[in-house]
Specification:
12 strands; 2 domains; Immunoglobulin-like
Length: 309
Amino acid sequence: MKNNVKVDYRNLPSATERTVSVQESAHFERNGLNESVKHQDPCGYRHLSDESKVVVTLMVVVLLSGSSKSGKSKKTIGRKSLKAAINRIILMAARVRIIKGKLGFDYNTADLEFLTKSEAIHSALLLNTGGFFTPVFTGLTAMGTMCTTLDTAIGNMKLGVIGAEGAKIAAKSALAINNINALNYVNNLARNNQTFAIEIITGAKMEVIERGAINKQDFVVKKTFAAGEVKMTCLAAKNEKGKRVTAVYQYQMSTTAGEPKIPVDIASISKSSMIITDIPPNVKTWFRKRVTTSKGGTTEWTVWFPITL
């Protein structure tokens, strides 16, 4: 069992035309490539990721090179045979898994947790620390307004304001739809830039869908069962071989509503998680972290993660 560190907050300072078979059409449909048939790209080449295009190109080069070395004539190879081979290569490349993400929460998530995660996504897209979120998400401004509206509605519910629950349901529903649009936006960016797909997805405070598994977010803050207490958790530092290494995790918090935020140092420890107590209630508090290792140096600060108790 991991030992959590507790800190008291009060003590802090164009393609060749061909006929597409039924099976291939079904394959394109399953992989989101159905539009390629309508745009004179029946093989779906232009919809492949950059890595898949490289694979296709290399395989075609090898195919042509092998045919040339074997001394076969153009008549033997034939245009149709070559075309069919290339088409099969492209179909194989289309089956390469595309890295994409998911929100990790939905409308049924508890109100405060739903709000906190939505605000984290909004902050990440707004700050655009890694420079990946261009063009800007069209629903970004509305997302900020929706978060504020939901926050107000939740507060009014606690105060017993008449009609607050209906307002909360409407606000949460609207934000849930906008969150899905944000996810589609991020996944489109990731699909067009598979090299940095993981950075794009996690940078947006979303979760990467791996083969049968999900990558955890790099930094998460959740409330515990105790009043005024939150737990911060981040992924353990690892080297290029994927092995854990000794590191110093530095955490900060802020209650500054606007920008720039005034950070308050919490602690610099060797643990990848810690608990902070006596967080003021009904006050939005932001947290962030960075990691230092002997060989990797110090990372950039993560995006501020907001939470309201």
